[in-house]
Specification:
The protein has helices spanning 10-28, 50-61, 67-82, 88-104, 107-132, 138-218, 222-250, 268-277, 293-313, 351-362, and strands at residues 281-287, 318-326, 329-337, 366-373, 381-390. By secondary structure, it is α+β, with helices and mostly antiparallel strands. Helix 2 runs antiparallel to helix 3 (67-82), helix 4 runs parallel beside helix 6 and helix 5 (107-132) packs antiparallel against helix 6 (138-218).
């Protein structure tokens, strides 16, 4: 199967036509580079000039699509031109072919051609001068340098600048891509953080509202209904306050008031009291000292979500919350009665466990949740949530 060469560039075709027409014009008026009586002129007469001129014009057409072929053919055409009276147009087109071979050729050609033309220039300078011992012999080296080494060096300089510009463009595109990836990851991380905060802040209150509203609707007891409505109102107000705090965080303090401070472990007592008001039998054992703020927030949210899950899923019985600082970490453990029941007292999405695991992972900690055997339990099983949150060095003890 024949290999089809790429279509020549329009500029190359125009350059070839301009060189050919210029050479024909010089040929028509009888202007040549050498007189007919020089010893080097082996092909006397005007007509032999046209053959290397036409070949060089064809090389100009291939200067971009096949630079190596153009250079080899052009070198042969220039050699043929030296045994005729010669044409200035042929020399000018050859310099452009050398320039294009370096600029558009392979990287190996771009490295070798300047070295080869440089060595030829040195040889054309030293050898004739050593043989003839006349200053005029140096002009031969100058001519070879102007025709070959100068365009090759120019092509190498232009190619280096072009490659540097392309590398800078690629680096700019890569930097923009990395910046976009960082922005996307930051947005995803912020959305995940907002989802955790929203879930942890309102899930407890909404679960209590759902459970007590169900009780109020199912029991025909005015006192029970009144108590349930009181709990519903209390959780509604607290949930609304938490939502306002989250909105304040999202607005970055641009509202009338600064957002409230993030919850700390000092608020665990109020959290447990709220869980007791919602019907849980909770025991708190918070044996811990001061811990860093990120660890405090994560521990508080893990306890909050665990109590919410106990409210929705646990069987009746004692729920135990334990916090202890040991071995450079804060251990949070929440245990609740585990066993079969008709179904959850309030609907859930399953995002709570995911959020707790993410909070522990962000601090480099460990998280596990599942049923464990407990002889002290009525049926021998408890649902235990355990998170180990590392403390950074230098925190106050």
């Amino acid at each position: 199967m024949a290999v089809r060469l790429p279509r020549p560039h329009r500029f190359d075709v125009c350059a070839a036509l301009a060189g050919l027409l210029g050479g024909l014009l010089l040929w028509g008026i009888g202007l040549a580079t050498r007189p007919a009586d020089e010893p080097i002129v082996l092909l006397d007469g005007r007509w032999p000039i046209l053959l290397p001129l036409t070949l060089m014009a064809g090389c100009e057409v291939l200067r971009r699509t096949a630079p190596r072929t153009a250079l080899l053919t052009g070198t042969a055409a220039l050699t043929l031109d030296t045994v005729t009276q010669g044409s200035v147009a042929t020399l000018i087109m050859f310099t452009d072919v050398v320039y294009a071979a370096v600029l558009y050729g392979t990287p190996a050609s771009a490295r070798r051609i300047p070295w080869i033309t440089g060595l030829l220039t040195v040889a054309a300078t030293v050898v004739p001068f050593a043989a003839w011992r006349v200053p005029e012999a140096l002009l031969l080296g100058v001519a070879v340098g102007v025709v070959s080494f100068a365009p090759a060096s120019t092509g190498l300089i232009v190619r280096n600048h072009r490659d540097a510009a392309e590398a800078a463009r690629l680096r700019a595109e890569q930097t923009a891509l990395l910046a976009e990836m960082d922005r996307t990851q930051a947005v995803v991380a912020e959305r995940a953080r907002m989802a955790r905060e929203l879930h942890d802040m309102v899930a407890n209150h909404l679960s209590a509202i759902a459970i007590h509203s169900t009780a109020a609707l199912s029991l025909d007891d005015p006192d029970t209904s009144k108590e349930a409505l009181s709990v519903i109102r209390e959780n509604s107000v607290e949930g609304l306050a938490e939502m306002r705090r989250l909105i304040g965080i999202l607005r970055d303090g641009s509202g009338d008031r600064e957002p409230a401070a993030a919850p700390t472990l000092d608020g665990l007592g109020a959290l447990v009291d709220s869980a007791r008001a919602n019907g849980l039998d909770v025991a708190l054992d918070a044996g811990h000292d001061q811990v860093p703020a990120p660890v405090e927030l994560a521990a508080y949210r893990i306890v909050q979500e665990s109590l919410t899950n106990a409210l929705k899923h646990a069987r009746p019985g004692r729920v135990t919350v334990r916090l202890a600082r040991r071995d450079g970490s804060l251990t949070v453990e929440v245990s609740s009665p585990y066993g079969d029941r008709d179904g959850p007292r309030a609907p859930g999405s399953g995002a709570g466990l995911i959020g707790m695991r993410e909070r522990a992972a962000l601090l480099g900690g460990d998280f596990e949740a599942g049923p464990v055997q407990d002889p002290a339990s009525a049926d021998g099983r408890m649902w235990t949530v355990r998170a180990i949150l590392p403390l950074s060095e230098g925190d106050p003890a």
